[in-house]
Write a structure and sequence with these properties.
- There is one protein chain.
- The protein is built from 6 helices and 2 strands; from the N terminus they run αββααααα.
- The protein is mostly helical and 171 residues long.
- It has one domain.
- Helix 2 packs antiparallel against helix 6 and helix 5 packs antiparallel against helix 6.
- The N terminus is likely disordered.
């Protein structure tokens, strides 16, 4: 984290070829991550209300895995808290800290690229760790969970990208 703060933080040019570190990106990253996480939550809420893929329950799978690892019952709120903490802080700060290095001109483009990367990591590493298999294929639902998780992650990342770009827009 200190590396990110010290070396990857965006620079501000003062017009005299001097640079100084700007730490405004930190609060902007947190706000963008929060908005992305709220959008993600709304998609999950819509999934539940509409009855889409009822056997695809990644938060419940995370809860079950944590309970097994801790040999103790983990309350259902814990996976949601982890999701908010991760989405708002860790991913938000990584996104904000690397924003100027990401390809693309617009926040939405950068958000989509990060979303695809996160989806690939989630489907190939995280889902198998939860016992769902590669891209949740072990559920026997074909590619539907993988496509829904892509939509879920892209909702998060594009909102985060748009909000971050808007917060950085020159007035």
């Amino acid at each position: 984290m200190m590396y990110l703060l010290r070396y990857a933080a965006p620079f501000v040019f003062d017009g005299h070829m001097n640079t100084k570190r700007s730490y405004g990106w930190i609060w902007k990253s947190l706000v963008a991550g929060l908005f992305g996480t709220i959008a993600h939550t709304l998609v999950v809420f819509l999934k539940v209300r509409a009855g889409w893929l009822p056997s695809f329950q990644p938060y419940q799978a995370l809860q079950n895995t944590l309970s097994r690892l801790l040999s103790s019952e983990v309350p259902p709120i814990v996976p949601w808290m982890i999701s908010y903490l991760n989405g708002m802080t860790i991913v938000g700060l990584l996104f904000g800290g690397s924003y100027r290095l990401l390809p693309g001109t617009y926040g939405i483009t950068k958000g989509i690229l990060v979303g695809i990367l996160v989806w690939l990591i989630m489907g190939s590493l995280f889902f198998p760790l939860l016992g769902l298999g590669l891209f949740a294929l072990n559920l026997g639902l074909g590619v539907k969970p993988a496509l829904f998780s892509l939509a879920m992650v892209l909702t998060y990342s594009t909102v985060m990208g748009v909000v971050y770009a808007a917060l950085n827009a020159k007035a």
